[in-house]
Design goal:
Layout lengths: L11 H5 L1 H18 L3 H25 L19 E5 L5 H9 L4 E6 L3 H7 L5 H12 L5 E5 L12 E7 L7 H14 E12 L3 H7 L11 H10 L3 E8 L2 E7 L1
Helix pairs in contact: 2-3, 3-8
Length: 252
């Protein structure tokens, strides 16, 4: 059972960062109205007000990075009985998502828990303790092992896992790093196993919402990811987008 004490810990500006821009733009619109500024100035401030508020709505209600996730496809790991690796587990959003959807499975939640973790989630408890607290709040800690390791050099033997998931992690790497991480996933996955790769979607409306305020360095075309998966002997069996998200379901 999931409790309200779960806190995925993404910083406030990922959800609410557009509101200060909206407030400033609204003040300028009001000042311009009463001071009779030029139409061009009013149009510019009005555009910024519209963009910032609409982008806030997208980030808060469509992408909802701090919300409780659900599997983007029910076709992932339908057998539901086996060991799943979560590459780049962070504070546990994707680990919890899989374990609640597949109650007969167990998971290894892997992250480097280094500087990038603090950049995304802030400082406080140790990263492992923050992840464990969320796993306990979700009631899945007994089915999870936490491992500190680099996704570019996974500390597992070949063909160890029945399924692998990675959500909003591999796309933080550069192109070479992303290819290496996908190759490592292929190495430790059993033949016939499935790999669910979840990314921030490179779509006009997503880039519109991110805008100059919030940038994500790993936004690449779908064709690039498809090719990277094929190069590492994955067969893409499903590829779709959801609000803010692109996913590839592949089989080894």
């Amino acid at each position: 059972m999931m409790h309200s004490s779960i806190n995925f810990g993404y910083p406030w500006w990922l959800t609410y960062g557009h509101l200060p821009v909206f407030a400033i733009a609204l003040i300028l619109v009001a000042a311009g109205y009463f001071r009779h500024w030029s139409r061009w100035a009013m149009a510019v401030f009005g555009i910024f007000a519209f963009w910032s508020f609409s982008a806030f709505l997208i980030m808060r209600f469509a992408i909802d990075i701090n919300g409780r996730g659900s599997l983007p496809t029910e076709n992932f790991f339908r057998a539901g009985n086996g060991r799943v690796l979560d590459i780049g587990a962070g504070t546990g959003r994707s680990t919890i998502m899989v374990l609640q959807a597949r109650p007969q499975s167990s998971a290894v939640a892997l992250d480097l828990f280094g500087a990038s973790f603090d950049q995304h989630f802030g400082q406080g408890q140790t990263p492992q303790d923050r992840l464990l607290a969320n796993l306990k709040a979700a009631g899945v800690d007994q089915r999870t092992t936490i491992t500190t390791a680099d996704m570019l050099k996974l500390p597992f033997d070949p063909a160890t896992f029945d399924a692998i998931i990675s959500a909003y992690a591999i796309d933080h790497l550069n192109r070479d790093g992303s290819r290496i991480a996908i190759g490592e996933a292929a190495r430790v996955l059993k033949p016939g196993g499935e790999f669910l790769l979840i990314l921030i979607a490179k779509e006009p409306w997503v880039e519109y919402a991110f805008g100059p305020l919030i940038m994500h360095t790993g936004l690449r075309e779908a064709s690039w990811w498809s090719e990277a998966l094929r190069e590492t002997n994955f067969t893409v069996i499903e590829h779709r987008t959801r609000p803010g998200t692109r996913y590839f379901l592949s089989r080894k």
